[in-house]
Design a protein that fits this description.
The chain is mainly β. It folds into two domains: 193 residues, no CATH class; 125 residues, no CATH class. The chain is built from four helices and 20 strands. The chain has a seven-stranded antiparallel β-sheet. A six-stranded antiparallel beta barrel has the order 2-5-6-7-9-12. Strands 3-4 form a two-stranded antiparallel sheet. The chain is globular, with a radius of gyration of 22 Å. 39% of the residues are buried.
């Protein structure tokens, strides 16, 4: 089966720990306890493709993939983050001669470029001024740069942010079992608390591996890329809504971990899966929703099983009953966005749907 037709699971399995290029760093890596790996385990991993797959164990609630707060005991909203934007001008600290950084084509470049020629490591050691979702400043250090093996033009960055609570440098990215030391991609612009993307000159987002922004890029929707002359920026933004089941376009997710979905689009970046695999069985899936950059355009049912009426209370006047005027080939919706015609969507997805409740035990006569 072609990778373009594989069903998508929320937490993308990235080549973070196997097969990635060694990090380029201006300071020694912290000493960590090394796990003992037997020869049998080590040899079992030989000769295997280490390129990024679109199938992995899921999660799906994080947009940036960053920690919500430096204080783990503090109640937080899912729309908060310790780091939402980074300014590229006027670094707080940089290598000699570097006056600013520039974002282009999925990576950062030193300004002015070195006379010997630009490399990914030119920006390592730079400390930039960032901002948290509450508007407070936070310094961000670039500690390493790792070109992606499957696409060397795209660079993953090892970053640390200054934790003003603990008074130490710390990786702001949320670690999960599959990616215990997550990296970040540099992405142009800023995402606000509603999940909307805003173009901002000389500002980027450091999007962590376990968040929707980065996962959608690795799935194929890099916002700086194009396909058949059409920019993928809109598809990427729609994907960030889809990946988190943000139906109302308000930044709130409606999904659980371990939820499998299948994504497809009209450009053919991702095609609908038709063959059963260990992770996905198309015969058990059904249409869930269609998506635009600002949320769902039509909805058949919710992904997490909550009543559709409950969801509609979250964004009243946004949806109405589907008038049923869509072409027969289009999956049937239960509700459709007010004022949005069929065909306006950029992405569509299938999912298994909520599990059916167990039947009550039969009463004895």
């Amino acid at each position: 089966m072609s990778p373009s037709v594989l069903p998508v699971w929320f937490l993308l399995l990235l080549p973070a720990t196997v097969g990635a290029a060694p990090p380029v760093s201006s300071k020694p890596a912290p000493i960590r306890a090394a796990s003992v790996e037997s020869d049998v385990e080590r040899y079992a991993r030989r000769c295997q493709s280490q390129t990024a797959h679109r199938i992995a164990r899921p999660q799906g609630t994080m947009l940036w993939g960053t920690k919500r707060s430096w204080d783990p005991d503090k109640p937080t909203d899912e729309r908060t983050s310790v780091l939402v934007s980074v300014a590229l001008a006027s670094p707080r600290q940089a290598e000699a001669g570097v006056k600013a950084l520039r974002f282009d084509g999925g990576r950062l470049w030193a300004v002015p470029p070195p006379e010997a020629g630009a490399t990914a490591s030119d920006v390592v050691g730079t400390v930039l001024q960032g901002t948290a979702s509450d508007g407070k400043p936070v310094e961000v250090a670039i500690c390493g740069a790792e070109p992606a093996p499957e696409e060397p033009g795209r660079v993953f960055y090892r970053i640390e942010a200054w934790n003003a609570v603990a008074r130490e440098w710390e990786n702001p990215c949320v670690a999960l079992d599959r990616v215990p030391a997550p990296r970040a991609l540099a992405v142009g612009g800023v995402w606000d608390s509603s999940g909307a993307h805003v173009d901002a000159a000389d500002q980027i987002t450091f999007a962590c591996e376990n968040g929707a922004i980065t996962k959608c890029i690795v799935w194929g929707y890099a916002p700086w890329a194009s396909r058949n002359g059409q920019s993928l920026a809109g598809l990427h933004q729609a994907c960030t809504r889809l990946a988190r089941a943000d139906y109302c376009g308000n930044g709130r997710s409606h999904t659980h971990q371990d939820t499998t979905i299948d994504i497809y689009d009209r450009l053919g970046v991702l095609e609908q899966a038709t063959e059963a695999t260990r992770e996905w069985d198309p015969s058990k899936a059904s249409f869930e929703a269609a998506w635009a950059p600002d949320g769902a355009t039509c909805l058949a049912r919710t992904r997490d099983g909550r009543a559709l009426e409950t969801l509609l209370q979250e964004c009243p006047d946004r949806f109405q009953a589907d008038p049923g005027d869509a072409p027969e080939a289009v999956e049937r919706c239960t509700v459709r966005r007010v004022g949005v015609k069929s065909g306006a969507e950029l992405l569509r997805n299938l999912s298994y749907g909520p599990p059916k409740p167990a039947a009550p035990p039969a009463r004895e006569p």
